[in-house]
Amino acid sequence: MNYFKHFLFIYLSLAYLLNAYTQNKVSGIVKDAKSKDAIIGANVDCGKLSTNTDIDGRFELNLEDGTHDVVISYLGYNNYSKNITLANNQTISLEIEMDEEAKNVFGQDLVITGSMFEKKASEEVISIEVIKPQLMLGVNALRIDEVARRVSGLNVADGQANIRSGSGWAYGVGSRVMFIVDGQPMLSPDRGDVKWTQLPVEAMGQMEVLKGATSVLYGSSAMNGTIHLQTVKPTKTPLTRFTAFQSFILPPKRKEIKWWDFPVLSFGATFLRAHKPKDNFEYFVSGSVYLNNTQFKGGQEYMARLNYKTRWTSKRNPKLSYGVAGSLLFNREYEFFIWENGKDGAYKANAAQDFNNIRVLVDPYMTVYDKKDNKHEIKTRSYFNRPSFATKTFLENIDYTFGKNFKKIGLNLIVGTNNQMLFINVPAFVGGGVKFGNLFAVYSQLDKRFGDRVTLSGGLRWETYKYQDVKGFTPPIGRFGVNARVGKESYIRFNIGQAFRFPSFAERFVNQPVGSYDLNDSTTAPLLRVLPNESLQPEYGWTSEIGFQQQFKSNNNIYNAQFDAAIYWQEYKNLVDFGGTEDSTSNAKINLRAQNISKARIAGWDISFKNNFNINNKNTLYLNAGYVYAFPIELNSTVNNPNFDNTTIKGYLKNMFKYVGKQIGGIDFYQVLKYRNRHLLTLDAEYTYNQKLTLGMDVRYYSNFEGFDQVFLGIEGVPEYLGSDDRTKGAWVANARVFYNFAKKHTLGCIVKNFTNKEYWLRVGKLESPMSLTMQYRMEF
What we know:
By secondary structure, this protein is mainly beta.
């Protein structure tokens, strides 16, 4: 019996070894059916065994004798399946071309911003919206902020972005929304604001908007959310696009505020060339020029910008890629600060400034996959800005990210480090113009999938800072979220994340007079002075949300829709806000200084419903709607309403729709945070007939902001405008567009902005543009 056991053991061992060396093999390459580009990271499933395609789109699996179903899947593409039979050490090689899924299927968009690796938007733990380049083309956007306003709950007031009322207007300095381009931060070194003219709107591939704190991944200024612009991805099919436009600002309804005799004219052009001429090389180059005459007297702007990006793949090591991106910009910017008065001077500046900029960005980068397919990525940026002969700012950024995918257990790990060095030479800064700063951070994020139902996400960040003589470090901040698929197309998500922001150099050190007290004599004392506050403290807080998403899709793919609803809650400490102040050393009529608010709270909900009808792939109809309610309260306000209990959550919720201010001198003062719209409604509809004629309209409702700087009551016309019935009802602003495509390559369009000619403002003392008409020609091949 013992001999039989030994014989059986040896026989089975030999059989196993023989089988191991006579296994069959299936290999192949996976490509995009249209562009013929390799698809990296596609999942190849053969039942018990699975793998992913490498950087060249290739895969290989050893299989036993028998019949196997090979299923290949990748986000944004239709699944590929093939039945194969293997025997006797057979090898089968496959060349697979995958077709893209039907476009505009909500929730299927591939996003990277929330986790630094690709996943479906519907599987994110945080609210996210995706904007495609077609929207940019349809509104003739000169700057990205014109596109961003179309996102539900995202507002841009006088160049400053806020999401769900997380921030307001801050005099052109500081941002609580981080803006990044291809993974690189884009805030200016001195002001800490977004330079919208720098962003390559004509090369936009996709824009992702994260609603909520994302400081764990993106650091300071990502308190309120992150906007990520991804540039166009070149393919073997070259893309060339040229656009030219001409715009006219038409007369406003009130004839007394029109200062021009003929319609105000603007014109410009953009171009884009993107191509992958070789397997190991790709590039894009784009540019934009325009002369923009704004609605303000003397408010002429012009700009010339060139952007580029290159990428090489090493022939010796296909897992190594590298390249350089960058931009060169020259422009004249005009900043309108406050009007002369609310009548004939509404479009004339009491206080304004203009300056010429030269900005240069150079972004070398490198990505390499090691032998275990771990990803190592290095991104660097050199950012130089010279707005005047005496003023110079410089930023040097370097970021290293390590990514590892534990495929067998469904775990993704991101670990990284970031360092920013800042050099500022601004004569208007107190204590001498030359300032130095440094930010250093270590961050990580872990995402764990449980089958195809549940995803957990968590992360940590620790950061040190030094702004001139002010230095310190943040306590470790964290983030946690979960996304659960509770039905076939139903998802529930929860996210909570801590946040922080370091005040910019401008908020700490600027000492700048603006405007003249006497309009007829520029030598008199200034109307307003922005004063420094060197003791300004960093902001801290957290944001959270519970969300639900339901997707709808007909069997024939004619109709698909997405309903999304979220309840959010934000808490902030030491929130930085500008306010009136007294200063014996200032001779200005109005003095302002950045100050810390001890505590603030913002809560509300965000609802959107998107619908897409696709008939024969020729006739399409989009109907999208979004509504965001916000209750932004300063909890330690000096204008407290005695009937408002802000010390308990119950009292806060009870008063969400009640009056929370009081009257002073006939003007309502509220303890709501300044320049926030409690109600934002976004509507968008577009119909395309026979892939040639496109008709569209979008409508935006801004409720009146209830908090503002009281010092502006001393400006002529402001109290009357604040108290007018028309302003207190809020503003409905509508735009319309029509485009006709002919000869496949050519498109003519007409865009009417503010076609009801609504007179409104998004902050005190600056009216938005009246109705304008734009004619656009676009050629694409």
